[in-house]
Amino acid sequence: MYELNFGVPMAGAVICTLNAHHDAAMVSVLLKHSEAKLVFADHQFLTIAEDAINLLSQSNSKSPLLIPIPEPSKDYSHSPGLNYESLIKNGDPCFDIKWPIDECDPIALNYTSGTTSRPKGVVYTHRGAYLNCISSILFSEIRTLPVYLWTVPIFHSNGWCLTWGIAAQGGLNVCLRDFTAKTIFEKITRYGVTHMTGAPTVLNMMANCPLADRQPLAAGQMVCVMTGGATPQPPVLEKMEEMGFKVVHVYGLTETYGPATVCEWKPEWDELSVDQQAKMMGRQGIRHIGTEAVDVKDPETMKSVPADGKTMGEVMFRGNTVMNGYFKDLKATEEVFAGGWMRTGDLGVRHADGYIQVKDRLKDIIISGLENISTIEVESVVYSHPAVLEAAVVGRPDEYWGETPCAFVKLKDGASADAEEIIGFCRARLPDFMVPKSVVFGELPKTSTGKMQKFVLRERAKAMGSLFMNGCGKMLEI
Ligand SMILES: Nc1ncnc2c1ncn2[C@@H]1O[C@H](COP(=O)(O)OP(=O)(O)OP(=O)(O)O)[C@@H](O)[C@H]1O
């Protein structure tokens, strides 16, 4: 997939990398929507690709040509039919690169993670990809000859545009098939990794990995970890720094070519307590050099909200590193660009120092009585309980309040805590209306890009029904 990020655009085509966790039905929908003509499928996903193409032909759609990517250890030189290696071997070494005619020609079609709705096809231009790639190299301080560990999938916004960035700096790519904290630590030591990217769930996995599976960084080894895709929890940031990693927090969307803001470290934060530093770093930050503008606006009036750290508005972007639009979806494109800015669907605030902070997704915010509750704020408190490994908070429909916060929690291995304890812990740290009124323990559903599937949890909370109240609206049972 890494090589194809170069080969496909150089052949004058558009690359569309699909999520390796999709099933055949979803792959066939996306093949049809993208109008792909050629499909390269890694040997691990060959069956899914074949099934998807079969589904396409059953629906009378034109089938793309399938080119398997063989297992590296196997000798495929005598096997019949075209495969990726034979295609490369028999290719024309004098082929002239087909450069884009216009820098705003498309280079890639990337589908969103599908966290809130069906994946949308986002069109990237050569110009936007170039700008975001250069910006990412700068803000994550990727100097020449980096050793880069891939934990962010390359199918996600072309690996946040770092597929091209690592090559630009002559880097070595370390890829993973076995995705465990143990393997991550092993690769970091074995290859002398200097940079990596990872969703907060990956950092969480590393921070909570058993000591026996963890390898300390070599003397003098500095690993810069770019994290984003969801809000990183302050305790996790703290732990990563404690283990010697330098964390760079970034925020963006598929629609912004991956990272669009970065939480740049300020020298005055050196004086703060570790806990306060992690809180500062948990904010989404300021635009990077490739982003023309980021703002938090009232979505109705399009006026910027005051920089008071309290007034919520919608985070919006504009500039060359914002997508061209959604492929074959003019209506959604017009909606997302209404008012001349790209609306993210994220609610945030502006702080006095110019940094923005995301408080929630519009679709996730809980409305309880007359109060808006940021699920991210409640989650950060639940996360700070020593027994909690992961937490997600959603609104549970309620006859009296409209909704009440309901926390879904996964505990650390060997740790114990009951609902009462979690609720008591939150009560000591949050205003009453924000305290979860119910707690459910178990595994938490996530997307393959590491985001909590809150729509699944909302369904579960809905199925639980309303809490019982007495006449004054007090909860009678938990
Ligand atoms: N650093 C971050 N902090 C908080 N949230 C983040 C951060 N980075 C990304 N996000 C969240 O991820 C979203 C972008 O995700 P992505 O483009 O992968 O698709 P998706 O929005 O999850 O999927 P879909 O649009 O299909 O529902 C942002 O709008 C934001 O809600």
TrEMBL record:
Catalysis: reaction(s): (E)-4-coumarate + ATP + CoA = (E)-4-coumaroyl-CoA + AMP + diphosphate
Gene Ontology biological-process annotations: fatty acid metabolic process; phenylpropanoid metabolic process
Annotated coiled-coil segments of the chain: none
Pfam families from the UniProt entry: AMP-binding, AMP-binding_C
UniProt-listed Gene3D superfamilies: 3.30.300.30, N-terminal domain of ligase-like (3.40.50.12780)
EC assignment: 6.2.1.12
InterPro entries hit by this protein: AMP-bd_C, AMP-bd_C_sf, AMP-binding_CS, AMP-dep_synth/lig_dom, ANL_N_sf
AMP-dependent synthetase/ligase domain ranges (all copies): 2-327
Superkingdom: Eukaryota
Top-level class of the enzyme under EC nomenclature: ligase
Molecular function terms, GO-annotated: 4-coumarate-CoA ligase activity; trans-cinnamate-CoA ligase activity
Domain AMP-binding enzyme C-terminal span(s) in chain numbering: 377-451
Keywords: Fatty acid metabolism, Ligase, Lipid metabolism
Family statement drawn from the similarity comment of this UniProt entry: Belongs to the ATP-dependent AMP-binding enzyme family.
Protein name: 4-coumarate--CoA ligase
Source organism per UniProt: Asparagus officinalis
